[in-house]
Amino acid sequence: KDGVMIITESGNSIRAFKPSLNIKPVADFSASTKTVNAGIPVNFFDQSSYNPTTWQWTFAGAAVSNSTLQNPIGIVYNAPGIYDVKLIAQNANGHDSIVKACQIEVLLGPTLKKDIDINDFNLYPNPFSNFICIESNLNYNDIPYKIVDLSGKILLQDLMHENKINLDFLHPGFYLITLGHQQIKTYKILKQ
Q1: Cα end-to-end span (Å), the chain
Q2: Which residues lie across from 191 on neighbouring strands?
Q3: Alpha carbon distance 103, 109 (integer Å)
Q4: Which of 70, 67, 142, 151 has its CA nearest to residue 109?
Q5: Separation CA 66–CA 87 (nearest Å)
Q6: How many of the other CB atoms lie within 10 Å of CB of 64?
Q7: Neighbour count for residue 41 (Cβ, 10 Å)
Q8: Rounded to an integer, what distance in angstroms lies between the CA atom of residue 111 and that of residue 180?
Q9: Beta-ladder partners of 82
Q10: DSSP letter string over 126-139?
Q11: What are the pLDDT digits (tens) for 32-89?
Q12: H or E element: which one contains 114?
């Protein structure tokens, strides 16, 4: 039989063999986080065994409640609460499902205080190459922002922690950046 032998420091050996059995998957997954502010995306990662070929995810409470991707990314929960996540993994030998109750806790996201004027922000340089800087007399901590392409697809969504956002992953072209939660300011930016 083909296999791998591992010899430990104590001299013991462990033999592992690739099974040639026809086995249905055992569904399992992990998430990039279990606690998130409303509006911030969560990524999910399939960890099912025995080579599933199709996946059916159900995200209770999420803006997009279903996915058939192996590793769905950018799942957004907009309302505070505690939500279950379900995965059905399938291969030619059958399927298995797992429901992780109370998997995602969504908190009310940070909001701008009423005395903060979102118009106090200035972005530069525009056009930009790799970074966009945000100038303001305000505290940057936990002000939400998102970068979207002109079709409306969210490319990046996070909370500001400093006055500089790394956008070197973007291809040249026009994008929109929105700042704020209750008060929102949108800027059109150009990546060179």
Answers
A1: 56
A2: 128, 173
A3: 18
A4: 142
A5: 10
A6: 11
A7: 19
A8: 7
A9: 105
A10: SSBSSEEEEE-SS-
A11: 999 988 888 899 999 999 999 999 999 999 989 999 999 998 898 988 889 999 999 9
A12: none
